[in-house]
Please model this.
Amino acid sequence: MAHVTRTRPSVSLFATDGRPHPLQDALVAVTLVLGALAFISAMFHNLHLLSSWAGLIGILTGAYGQYISVTTRERFPLIIGMGASALGFFLGMAHGGLFGGVIG
Model:
């Protein structure tokens, strides 16, 4: 009698390979947190250093996450996080930039 191994079906419709991706999931979480931080802090003029740096790092982590991502389940929140990071970065740059008032 043949032995049949059963695998647990994937939770998400878009996670097509059914394997865990801890590095990609960590990059998704970091990008989303940095995007939220950059977006929220960009609403305050005096927090331009925080919003511009968080936005820049969020853009870079999201870009690397896109580079190594495997499934659509990973790519979708990376795009959301990168968009929020970019918006926070651009508003932070408009309010004073990465080094505004610190250097020179």
User: Anything to note?
Assistant: Helices lie at 22-41, 48-68, 72-95. The chain has a mean pLDDT of 88. The first helix runs from residue 22 to 41.
